[in-house]
C-alpha cells in the first residue's frame, strides 16, 4: 500500500480536491474527519456532479475498506467485484494507507507471469475521431463507463488516448449567476404565494466543473504505448507501471489496434493464479 496518503478533511471544498487530482494525477482521494475515514471522492464524482461543491454530497460515504494484514489477492477480489480502483487501508477506524489497482499492477510486474494477454485479459473497445469536442468525449465516457478511449485520425490510424485523468487535467471551474423568475407563476388557486412572487426574481451563484470547448486531439496523450497480442502479462504490467498508464492498446502484426488491455482486467491474473497470500 501507499502509506503517505493524500487526503482531504471535512468540512472542505470541491476545488481543493480538483487541485489535488490535477497536481498528482491520482484517481481519487479519501475524505477524513479528525483522522477517521468518512468517505472517498473520485474523478468520476467530480465529472458527474459538475455543479456540486460540498464534499459531503460529492463523496461516497462509508466506503469499503481493507485491513493492513490482508493479502493482495483479497484486495484484487474486492476491487474486481465492486469495480473499484482503490481501497482505503483502515485499522480501528484510522486511515493507514491506500491500495490501488496501480499498486497491484506493480506487484504483478514483479511476479513474472508468462501467460499471454490474449488468454482472456484483453477487451474489445471503441474509438473516437480526433476532432471530437472534449465536452462530448466526457459525456461519452460517462455513458459508456470507459475510463479511457483510443483516438483515431481520418485515416483510422491510432493517434492518441484520452482518459479521465486527461479530462480532469483540462477541467476548469466556471462561475456564473442564474436568475429564478418568481413572477411567472400561473397558480389560479385562492391560496397562493403571490406576495413572494411579487419579489419577481432571485439571483444565485452557480459553480461548475466544466470541460473547455477544445478538440480531443488537443487534450489526449499522443505518445501511445502499445503491445502485441502475444505480450506476456508481467511484461505489460511493467509497461503500465513505467509509463504510468491505466491501459495499453493491443495491436496485430499490421500494427492496427484490435483491442485494449485495461489494468482492471490485468489484476484478474491474481484471482486466476494459484499463488499464495
From TrEMBL:
<keyword id="KW-0028">Amino-acid biosynthesis</keyword>
<dbReference type="InterPro" id="IPR051257">
    <property type="entry name" value="Diverse_CBS-Domain"/>
</dbReference>
<protein>
    <submittedName>
        <fullName>CBS domain-containing protein</fullName>
    </submittedName>
</protein>
<dbReference type="InterPro" id="IPR000644">
    <property type="entry name" value="CBS_dom"/>
</dbReference>
<feature type="domain" description="CBS">
    <location>
        <begin position="59"/>
        <end position="115"/>
    </location>
</feature>
<feature type="domain" description="CBS">
    <location>
        <begin position="121"/>
        <end position="177"/>
    </location>
</feature>
<dbReference type="Pfam" id="PF00571">
    <property type="entry name" value="CBS"/>
</dbReference>
<feature type="domain" description="CBS">
    <location>
        <begin position="220"/>
        <end position="277"/>
    </location>
</feature>
<dbReference type="InterPro" id="IPR046342">
    <property type="entry name" value="CBS_dom_sf"/>
</dbReference>
<feature type="domain" description="CBS">
    <location>
        <begin position="1"/>
        <end position="57"/>
    </location>
</feature>
<keyword id="KW-0486">Methionine biosynthesis</keyword>
<keyword id="KW-0129">CBS domain</keyword>
<dbReference type="GO" id="GO:0009086">
    <property type="term" value="P:methionine biosynthetic process"/>
</dbReference>
